[in-house]
Amino acid sequence: MITGGNRQKMIRGMEMDEMCVCRIVVMGGSFNPPTIAHLRLMEAAIRAVDAEKGIFVPVGGPYLKRKMRKSHDHIRLSESTRLDMLKAMCVGRENLSVSDLEIQNPLLVTKDTMGVLKDQYPDAKLYFIAGADKLPMLGSLASKTDYFERFGVVLFSREEMDAEEIIRKDERFAPYEAAFIHVKQPEGTDGISSTAVRKLIADGEAEKAYPYLHRDVWEMVRRLAPGDFPEEIEQFREEYEFLSNGYLSEVEYEGLSYPCAEAAFQAARCMKEKDRKRFLKADGARAKSIAAKIEPKPDWEEIKLAVMEKILRCKFMENPDLARRLTDTKDAVLINGVKGSGLFWGKDLYTDRGENQLGRLLMKLRAELRNEKEDEQ
Q: N or C: which end of the chain has fewer CB within 10 A?
C-alpha cells in the first residue's frame, strides 16, 4: 500500500521529471567484453524513456577481479581495453558516451555513481538500466536509501516474467512503482553474453565471437589468445602454502638454520647474533612477534628486498621438492594476497593495491629455475 507521504514524494518526483531539461539512461557493468546485447539494451532504454543521452559506466578493475574470482574465470580484460571497446561501440552514435567514473574511483557502488552523475547533470532525470534478475540488489537500495525518489529504473525482463506484478506485490518496491519503466528484453539478445565470448577466447576460438560483438569490438577480441590471460594464484594457502614464508621448511642463512623463510628473514633484521638466535625455533607468526620488539638494522629498509631474495634462493635451492613445485606453477601470476596490510610484500585482495614484491621475487626465481633446467637438458 502506498502511504500518503510516499504518494506525495511520487507526485513531486513526476513534477520534477516534467521540469528536467533532459533524460539520461545509465548502464553499469563489467563489459568484459561489451557485446551487441549491451548496445541493443541501451538503445531500447533510450527509446523507452525518450532519453537524449546514454552513458556506459564500466566497473573498476578491483571489482571485476572480485567478481571473476567467484566464477574461477580468468579471462579478464584490462580497464583500458574495456574502455576502448565501449568507445569503439559508441562511434557514430552521438547520444552515447562512456564514463570512467568507477575506474577512477574503484570503491564507488551503484548508488554512489548515480549520485555523482546527478551532480554532473543536475537538470537531468537519470534512469539506471537493470535486468529483472537484479531485483534482489535493487531491493537493498529500496530499503536503505532514497534511491527511487531520486532516480528511475529501466527494468528489462523476459516474456515469461511479470516484473510489474512482482514489484506491485513487493512491499519494498510498491511505494516506488512509478519509478520503474518496464521494457521487454529486445529480441535477438538471448544467448548473447560476455561469458560466451570469454569461453571462445579461453578455447582459442575468439574469431568465432563475431555474432556477439560490434564489428570494431570483434576486431579487438579476435586478436586475443588464452596466453594473454595467465592463471593467477592469489593466495599462498592450501596447495600453494609452500610459497608462503611461513611454510615450515628448513632454511640455512648466514651460518644459522631456521624453521622457515620468515624466521630467517626476521632474524636478518637484527644487528647482534644473540638476537638472531632467538629465531632458531620460531615459526612465521612467532618470528614476526619477536622481531617487533627488536630494533632493526639502520639500513634495513634499503636492503630488505635483496635479503628476501637471498633467503628465497636458500629456501628453494636447499629443498628441491619445493623448487619443483614452484616451477610446476608454470606461467601463473603469483600474488601474495593480503587483507589491508602488508602491501609492500603483497597485494590487497579487495582493492588490488600493493606492490606484491614477494610474488615478484618468486616469479623471478621460478624463471631462473626453469632456465637452469632447460640448460641441463
A: C
CB 279 within 8 A of CB 264: yes
Q: How confident is the model at residue 2 (pLDDT cuts 50, 70, 90)?
A: very low
Give the class (CATH, top level) of 4-228. alpha beta
Cell of 149: 525518489
Phi/psi at 136 (5° precision) = -60, -40
Beta strands in the chain (DSSP E): 22-29, 53-58, 96-98, 124-131, 152-157, 180-184, 232-233, 248-253, 256-260, 333-334, 337-338, 347-348
Strand partners, 233: 334
Indicate if the alpha-carbon torsion angle 184, 186, 187, 191 is positive or negative: negative
- Here the cell at position 274 is 644473540
- The domain spans of the chain are 4-228, 233-376
Alpha-carbon gap, residue 42 to 92, rounded angstroms: 15
From the list 30, 38, 130, 25, the residue with the least C-alpha distance to 90 is 38
Per CATH, domain 233-376 is 1.10.357.40: yes
pLDDT at 160 over 70: no
pLDDT band at 137 (very low <50, low <70, confident <90, very high): confident
Q: Choose among 183, 84, 91: nearest CA to 129.
A: 183
The span from the CA of 288 to the CA of 265, in Å, is 10
